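Obj.: predict assembly geometry.
Materials: sequence records (below).
Method: joint structure prediction, all chains together.
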Amino acid sequence: MHQVFKKPVSLKDIQTHFCPGCHHGTFHRLVAEAMDEFGVQERTIGVASVGCSVFLYGYFDIDVVEAPHGRAPAVATGVKRARPDSFVFTYQGDGDLAAIGTSEIIHAANRGEDITVIFVNNTTYGMTGGQMAPTTLVGQRTSTSPYGRNRSKDGAPIRMAELLAQLEGVAFSARVAVNNPKNLMDAKRQIKKAFRYQVEGKGFSFIEALSSCPTNWGMDPLSANERVGSEMCSYFPLGVFKNDSGL
Amino acid sequence: MARIEIEETRCKGCGLCTLACTRKLIAMSETITKQGYVTAVMTDQEKCTGCALCAEICPDVAIRVFK
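Observations (raw structure tokens):
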């Protein structure tokens, strides 16, 4: 009898601070597995953002730079240009990437920086107390939209994966989820593809990862997981929106 | 013959593994851990096929699978 499933080497053996049922932990593991598969752990420099993803440096067994709020793609640009032989990825939430850091992500993507961006979308500001984010669904109640997001006042949620796919500099853009085994296996494939783009020096790759946030949605973990598959997947369709090299 | 090990100190009791197991072999415990969580427990080790879907979906990497 041998072990067929174990913790990836790039992930430290410590318990995370994530709430029960939060998908951040799953995405951390998938990213670590991809690093293991390509054997890039030793030359990886991760760029952490602000939000629940901020403790990335404590969970991954790699070098990490902590960027100011929203500025991870700009910091990653500098890291990659200074150390072109390194493997650089950012891991950002929706409050970080789609709100405060919109300028940085759009321009880094448009320049076609040779980095990978993992964007975890849970339709809310998780760490700061569940405020409305640009990705909050219409009608969703948050601490700053107690009557639900109002389309005419607050606009419609931003679909980042589609938006970035339009830019010339983007080589790969996909949206994934891990709410059930089928979506999870696909997420694993797409994250590895995104990593392959950088390993082979083929340009900017972007993964939008749909995640639950049971605490701020006011749901138990199973209902929150269910919401990802129903409400979120119908507004944020899963799939690959750009795959330049056809990997 | 396959076997899973659920690490009680890592499990936060979200229950996602109970959904992932196609044979419905995982249930929630009736006791709570030191950290205050109701954890996942294997109910029938004999029937486990070692597909590892429970471990794949676990956000806390709390499940080890042997085959």
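Conclusions so far: The first helix of chain B runs from residue 16 to 20.
To do: check interface contacts against the pulldown list.
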